[in-house]
Amino acid sequence: MKKCLISLLLLLAVACSNFSSIEKYRIGKPGESEMIMPLFTNQIPEELQFLRLKAGPLSRRDMKSNLYSTLKSRMMATVLDTANTGVGIAAPQVGISKQLIAVQRFDKEGEPFEFYVNPIIENYSQETQWGWEGCLSVPGERDTVLRSTQVVITYRDQDTWEMARDTVSGFTAVIFQHEIDHLNGKLYID
Question: pTM here?
Answer without folding.
Answer: 0.89
